[in-house]
Every structure is written in structure tokens, then in C-alpha cells.
Specification:
- This protein has 248 residues and is α+β, with helices and mostly antiparallel strands.
- The protein has 2 domains: 2-33 and 153-222, D-Maltodextrin-Binding Protein, domain 2, CATH 3.40.190; 44-149, Dipeptide-binding Protein, Domain 1 (Dipeptide-binding Protein, domain 1, Alpha-Beta Complex), CATH 3.90.76.10.
- Helices cover 10% and strands 17% of the residues.
- The protein has 4 helices and 10 strands.
- It has helices spanning 21-27, 88-98, 146-149, 154-157; strands spanning 2-4, 35-37, 44-46, 60-62, 68-73, 119-120, 124-129, 169-175, 179-184, 200-203.
- It has a 4-stranded mixed beta sheet with strand order 1-10-9-8, with no helix packed on it.
- Strand 2 (35-37) and strand 3 form a beta hairpin.
- The chain is globular and about 55 Å long.
Length: 248
């Protein structure tokens, strides 16, 4: 259990307010993507892919025209919580969703992907960037499961619930003003389980006597690492949102 005085405005990282640090802490246990953050070193480490693409391992190449091609090899064992394999088609669907002109999603850098370069396979995904960018390592940090999300209203259907998990825990329940409960994902494909995952997040009062133990600021169960997930929404003059540590 993690105690906090904060509560997310939404459970959807693609909505305004979806970059809140508290949602990052919850999402870390549910979402999956190309990379994770090592809680000890704060370095990028592979999540759903076998290794982070680099020039050294052949995952990144740049041709004479300055086109940067990036290739992901998805882990063979990676599956969603319902047993459906995590595939290149999920990456493709995520890209198509982000680039949907009708959705207020931050398209920075994704708009530099050459559309005709995108190739999705059962366990591979490839695309090219023009011009090349060192920020490419931050792309595809949160993958959408096509079979669960396609055909739904991304902005309306996923504010108070979370799509099928690719992480160690699955969403169970949100009781606004009280708690968010996650349950163990029995189909999680990584071992060992991440030590900083958690089954629930309980909202604590801003002042209380006595203060519940799970709300102690220095309690180990109150100190889970935030996910550093990138901001996905486009700020507009008609919306207000606060940016916290880990937002970029």
C-alpha cells in the first residue's frame, strides 16, 4: 500500500492531467512500453523489448540521406494480462492513435516518423525518423493494447479505468476520494517481480491525528519511485494542468 495526499484527475495518460506524478506511480505497475527506469540508477532499461536500440546493437541505423531507422525486438514472452501477445501491431496502433488529428495528444517527435517507413510484425516494429533525434529513445513509452482499446472512445472510456495490463499488476477498482486498487497480474512475464510495484494507493488526509502509518512521509511503503513517463497531452488555452517532477 502507498499512502498519498494526491489523487489523479484521470487514469488515462493521454488526457490533460495524465502526467501527474501520482498517476505515474500507479501506471508504473500497469503500463508497458519500450523502456522503464531503473529505480536505483535512474537509467533507461528495456521493458517490453529485448534491448534498447542502439547503433552498437544494430537497432539504430542512419543512412547517407540522414534518415534514422529504429528497430524494436519485442520479447517473445511478453503478453497482456489476458494472455494476448504484445505485438508490433500494438505499437502500430499506438502510433496511429497518437497521430489521430482528432485527438489532443502531443505529437512531438512522432510527427517526424516517416509514415511509409512503419513496419509491424508479430514481435517486431520498425520506423524511420527524419531528421534523426536523440530523443527517439523516449518514444513508445506507453503502448496501447489494440484488442482492448480499438473502437472505444480513448478520451471518454478510459478516464476512470485502465486498459488491460502489460505490467505486474492489473487495475481493479477506483473509489474516488478513497483508494485505487491493483491486483497481481498472474500472466506477468517478467521475473522477478519489480520490488517497487504495489497493490493499492490510498488517499490520505492532508491533516489527521494520528496520521495513518501508510501516510508517514518516510515510511518505505510511501516511497515508491515515480515512472518518469513522458507527457502525452497537448496543453491548450482552455485547459489547466499542473506539471510535477518527471514531466517533460
Amino acid at each position: 500500500m502507498i499512502g498519498t495526499t494526491a489523487e489523479p484527475a484521470t487514469l488515462n495518460p493521454y488526457l490533460p492531467g495524465g502526467d501527474a506524478p501520482i498517476l505515474g506511480r500507479i501506471g508504473r505497475a500497469v503500463w508497458t512500453g519500450v523502456y522503464d527506469i531503473d529505480p536505483s540508477t535512474l537509467e533507461l532499461i528495456p521493458d517490453v523489448v529485448t534491448e534498447l536500440p542502439s547503433v552498437a546493437n544494430g537497432g539504430i541505423t542512419v543512412d547517407e540521406a540522414g534518415i534514422e531507422t529504429i528497430r524494436y525486438q519485442i520479447r517473445d514472452e511478453a503478453v497482456w494480462a489476458d494472455g494476448v501477445p504484445i505485438s508490433g501491431d500494438d505499437f502500430l496502433f499506438t502510433y496511429q492513435t497518437i497521430m489521430d488529428p482528432g485527438l489532443p495528444i502531443d505529437k512531438t517527435l512522432y510527427e517526424d516518423i516517416v509514415p511509409e517507413s512503419v513496419v509491424a510484425g508479430p514481435k517486431t516494429f520498425e520506423y524511420a525518423l527524419a531528421p534523426p533525434s536523440v530523443e527517439a529513445e523516449l518514444l513508445f513509452d506507453t503502448i496501447l493494447p489494440r484488442h482492448d482499446v480499438e473502437g472505444s472512445d480513448l478520451l471518454g472510456a478510459w478516464s476512470d479505468r485502465m486498459w488491460v495490463s502489460g505490467g505486474p499488476f492489473s487495475f481493479a477498482e477506483w473509489r474516488p476520494g478513497e483508494s485505487i486498487t491493483l491486483v497481481r497480474n498472474d500472466n506477468y512475464w517478467k521475473t522477478p517481480k519489480p520490488a517497487n510495484s504495489f497493490p493499492s494507493s490510498r488517499r490520505c488526509p492532508s491533516s489527521s491525528t494520528p496520521i495513518p502509518r501508510q501516510c508517514w512521509p518516510h515510511s518505505p511503503i510511501a516511497g515508491s519511485t515515480s515512472s518518469f513517463r513522458r507527457r502525452r497531452w497537448r496543453r491548450s488555452s482552455n485547459s489547466e494542468a499542473s506539471r510535477g517532477p518527471g514531466s517533460t
